[in-house]
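Hi R.,

Here's the input for the GN1 complex you asked about:
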Amino acid sequence: MDLSLLMEKFNVKGRLVTLAPFGSGNINDTFLAVYRNTFTETQVVLQRVNRKVFPRPEEIMRNMHAITLHCHEKLERDAMSGRDDRVWQMPRIVKTKDGRDFACDEKGEVWRVITRILSAHAFDTAQGPEHALECGSALGHFHYLLADLPPESVTDPLPGFHVTSGYLRQYDRTLRSKHAQALLNASVEAKRLAKYVDERRDFALCLERAEAAGELKRRMFHGDPKVNNIMIDDFTGKGTAMIDLDTVSPGLVQIDVGDAVRSICNPAGEEEPNLGKVAFDENLFLAFMKGYMREAGVFMTAADRDHLYDAVRLLPFELGLRFFQDYLAGDRYFKTRQPGQNLNRARVQFRLCESIEAREGTIRAILQRL
Ligand code: GN1
Ligand code: MG
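And here is the predicted structure with GN1 in place:
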């Protein structure tokens, strides 16, 4: 596929000067395109929506249209009113020359172009408490932005995403395959992880039970608020935008908090081979929660707060389970660069979960003080 020909379908002014792979996402293929004309430069991001993960990419784009329209209007109103201490941003969809939100290639793959947030970066790991606090503010502000988007404006992009019981069922199905059994028998470490999962089967249902009992209500959530989806302004060091809007839909905000925390409070990152370096950092957690509550505290009911610890413990478990299942199934979902990468990713998440369990008292004490 000649990507520069594909770019010609989109309405970007200037001449294309470079088009190169960009970012470190595990799902979509992402490229940065830079256009120049006499006086200005335009940078946009080209992405192929992964059809294996999102079976209906057209729906993803309809959702993105509704979400960005709602948020851009609200952001402009807030900017006029001087509500905020900064300019919050959100990428915009760049239309095709025939006015559509995406283009298809000859294989029917869906490609989109969005604006790049300039003079800002996302990091793969937390840089320190100030960074963690800004990540918390950015997620809290995102929840505020979406709080009044009617849930029926979006369709569920990935039914069952963040339903841990569903991942357990999928894992159990995978375990029955010959391929998975062979991998398990060949590795003491894989067997250890399987035991780890078994010991937490009951706990894994905690948020689903709370929702079924009516203790927790769905609101709009991001679905994938890991540290490298949070853009930080290069000049002020403040959070400025949440990116990767594919999974935005009605969900539990606790899940977003848990997912952001598992990514931010593990400074070793998701790919660390040495488990001795993987640990939950309480200072980063305190800073993140301060930033989050500053923006979203007004929405949080007592029940919402009561379930935060469970979410913080659950999300690394759930992601570890997803990585482990994918390893046993032959690496079909998450992109990998080397064999055993998903097994190691699972080891890291389970170690992080253990580290959280060991610090339960401290984590609950921090949550109480907010
Ligand atoms: C995937 O696309 P990316 O890299 O932002 C995944 C998340 C995981 C994350 C772990 C749709 O996110 O759920 O937490 O990898 N997204 C999807 O790195 O499955
Ligand atoms: Mg994503």
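One thing worth noting: The two ends are 52 Å apart (CA to CA).

Cheers,
M.
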